[in-house]
Design goal:
Blueprint (H helix, E strand, L loop, with lengths): L3 E9 L9 H17 L3 E6 L9 H6 L2 H10 L3 E2 L3 H5 L3 H7 L6 E2 L4 E3 L11 E5 L5 E8 L3 H6 L2 E3 L2 H15 L2 E7 L2 H10 L5 E3 L11 E3 L2 E4 L7 E10 L5 E10 L7 H17 L3 E5 L12 H14 L3 E5 L10 E4 H7 L6 E7 H11 L2 H4 L16 E4 L1 E5 L7 E6 L2 E2 L5 E7 L9 H5 L3 E3 L5 H12 L9
Parallel strand pairs: 1-2, 2-3, 3-4, 7-9, 9-10, 10-12, 16-23
Antiparallel strand pairs: 1-13, 5-8, 6-7, 11-12, 13-14, 15-17, 16-19, 18-23, 18-24, 20-21, 21-22
Helix pairs in contact: 1-9, 3-9, 10-15
C-alpha cells in the first residue's frame, strides 16, 4: 500500500452575491466531498471572501447574514473575508456577521481600534487528518487602510503580520495553506517572499487560473468570480515522513452542474425574507422621477444636491449612471432604492484646486466618459453617465457639447489656484478615471454610508411620507 495520500481542497471566491450559479457550485462540491468520504480520503472546503455583496437584496436586507446561511448550508469549513464584508458593512454589522457561522473565520491582519483581534476571527487554525497530517490554515485580506480606519478597524499590512505567524504555524504543521483575499499579484509576491507556504488559495482580482500556478514552489490557485468555476487542489503527502510530495490545482467549470435542491430552496426562502424586510416606505412621489445618462436630469441633480448638503461641502458632483432606473409615482420603498442604486460606493469630500476641478469637469463631458461602461470601483451600473453638479455651472464653447468654456462656482468664475471642498463618489478619488481627483488631498471618506443612503435622505426631504398621510 502506498504511503502517499491525497488531501483534497475545494475553494470558492468572489461570489459577490451572484446566486445564479451558486446552487450548481454547491452541488458539485457536495458530490465531490461525498466521493472522497466513500474513498476514505480527506477533503476540505474554503471560501476566500467577497461572498457577500450589498448589490443583492438578500445581502442588503440581512447585512450579509443570509450569505453566512448559504455558506453554512454549502459546508464551508474555513473562510476569510474580502473587502465587501470588511468595508461595506458597519463595524457592528461585521462584528455580528458570523455569530451563527458553522465555519471558522481566519483573518490575521484585522484588529479593532484598541489593537485586539475580533472575537469572531482566528489568525490561523491547525486541522489534522485521520492519518495524523497537520495542516496549518491562515487568512489575510487586502488592507484598504482609510476605509477600515473610517469604520473603527485597524487593518495591518499582511507582509508585517505573516512572518511571525508563519513561524508559529510552520512549527506546528506539516502543510501550510494561506487563504488570501489580496489579489493574484500579491499572492505571487507572497510566494516569492515566504517559502513556508505550500498553497495559496486566492481571490479579489477575479483571476481564473484553469491550471494553478507554481511560484517558488508555492502553488497559487484562484477560480474567477460568481462560482461559475470551483477550485480544486490536490496535495499528496507521504504519511510516514509527512512531507509534501506533489501538489496540483485546477478551476473546474460547474456551469452545467445540476443545482442543489437544498440550496435552491434556501435561496428562495432568503429572497422572500428579503422582500418582506425591504418593503418599507421611505417616501411618496406625486409624480415620476425620470433619469437620463446622456442629458441633464432633475433626478441626478437632486441626488447631487443631497450629497452636497449631507456632506456639508461647498460643491458636489455625481455621475447620473449611479441611478439605474426611474421611479414611478406612489410609494418608494427600501427595495426600490436598492434596486435603482445598488452600488457599495461611499460619499467622499476632497480638497481640490480650481485648475484640477475645471480639468475634471471638461473630461466629464466627453462622450468617452459619459458612455464609459465602467466595471469595478464598486460601480454596479451600465455606463458612467453625464455628470450632475451642485454649486457648479459649466458653459460650452462653439457647437460642441463637450467643449467646456467657463466654469462658475456659486455664480462666480472659478479661481484656478483656489482650493474647493468637493463632495463626490469615492470611486472618483482612486484609480485612473479622473487622475487629478485621485491625486488631490486631503480626502475624507464617509463610512459606512453609501450613495444609496444619500438618495434615501434626499427623497425623504423632498417627498416626505407625512405630506401624504394627512399628518
Amino acid at each position: 500500500m502506498s504511503s502517499v495520500i491525497p488531501i483534497n481542497l475545494y475553494h470558492t471566491n468572489d461570489l459577490h452575491s451572484d446566486l445564479n450559479q451558486w446552487p450548481s457550485a454547491v452541488n458539485y462540491i457536495k458530490k465531490r466531498r461525498e466521493f472522497h468520504t466513500r474513498k476514505n480520503e480527506t477533503s476540505f472546503y474554503f471560501d476566500l471572501g467577497d461572498h457577500a455583496d450589498l448589490v443583492h437584496p438578500i445581502t442588503e436586507a440581512t447585512k450579509g447574514k443570509g450569505n453566512v446561511e448559504l455558506m453554512n448550508e454549502a459546508g464551508v469549513q474555513h473562510a476569510t473575508i474580502g473587502n465587501n464584508e470588511g468595508i461595506t458593512l458597519k463595524k457592528e454589522e461585521l462584528q455580528s456577521l458570523y455569530e451563527n457561522a458553522t465555519f471558522k473565520v481566519l483573518l490575521a491582519n484585522l484588529f479593532d481600534d484598541k489593537g485586539d483581534m475580533p472575537d469572531w476571527a482566528l489568525p490561523y487554525d491547525i486541522v489534522e487528518t485521520k492519518e495524523g497530517i497537520k495542516i496549518g490554515l491562515l487568512g489575510v485580506t487586502i488592507p484598504f487602510y482609510p476605509f477600515y480606519k473610517g469604520l473603527g478597524w485597524d487593518i495591518k499590512d499582511p507582509y508585517e503580520v505573516l512572518p511571525s505567524i508563519l513561524r508559529e504555524v510552520r512549527a506546528k504543521a506539516d502543510v501550510v495553506v494561506l487563504l488570501s483575499h489580496l489579489g493574484y499579484p500579491q499572492d505571487e509576491e507572497i510566494a516569492r517572499q515566504f517559502n513556508e507556504i505550500d498553497v495559496i488559495l486566492g481571490a479579489h482580482t477575479h483571476h481564473l487560473l484553469k491550471s494553478s500556478v507554481l511560484v517558488n514552489d508555492t502553488l497559487i490557485a484562484q477560480c474567477g468570480k460568481s462560482s461559475y468555476y470551483v477550485g480544486r487542489v490536490e496535495i499528496w503527502v507521504d504519511k510516514e515522513s509527512k512531507k509534501v510530495m506533489k501538489k496540483t490545482g485546477s478551476a473546474v467549470d460547474v456551469s452545467r452542474e445540476r443545482p442543489s435542491a437544498e440550496t435552491v430552496s434556501l435561496v428562495q426562502q432568503l429572497r422572500q425574507e428579503a422582500e418582506e424586510a425591504l418593503d418599507e416606505t421611505v417616501a411618496v412621489l406625486p409624480e415620476s422621477l425620470s433619469i437620463s445618462w446622456s442629458e441633464p436630469s432633475f433626478f441626478a441633480d437632486m441626488l447631487t444636491e443631497g450629497l452636497r448638503h449631507w456632506c456639508k461641502a461647498d460643491i458636489a458632483m455625481l455621475n447620473s449612471g449611479l441611478i439605474l432606473e426611474p421611479l414611478v409615482p406612489g410609494r418608494v420603498t427600501k427595495k426600490d432604492i436598492h434596486r435603482i442604486c445598488p452600488h457599495p460606493i461611499n460619499p467622499c469630500v476632497v480638497q481640490v484646486k480650481g485648475s484640477v476641478l475645471k480639468e475634471t469637469i471638461a473630461a466629464a463631458f466627453t462622450e468617452k466618459m459619459i458612455d464609459l461602461p465602467l466595471k469595478g470601483f464598486g460601480f454596479r451600473g451600465h455606463q458612467l453617465g453625464r455628470m450632475a453638479f451642485s454649486g457648479i455651472e459649466a458653459t460650452f464653447g462653439g457647437n460642441s457639447k463637450e467643449s467646456v468654456r467657463e466654469v462658475f462656482i456659486h455664480g462666480k468664475p472659478i479661481i484656478l489656484d483656489e482650493t474647493y471642498e468637493l463632495a463626490t463618489a469615492d470611486m472618483f478619488t482612486f484609480g485612473s478615471l479622473y487622475p487629478g481627483l485621485a491625486q488631490s488631498a486631503p480626502k475624507k471618506y464617509f463610512m459606512p454610508e453609501t450613495i444609496r443612503d444619500i438618495l434615501t435622505y434626499i427623497l425623504k426631504k423632498y417627498y416626505p411620507i407625512s405630506s401624504h398621510t394627512g399628518n
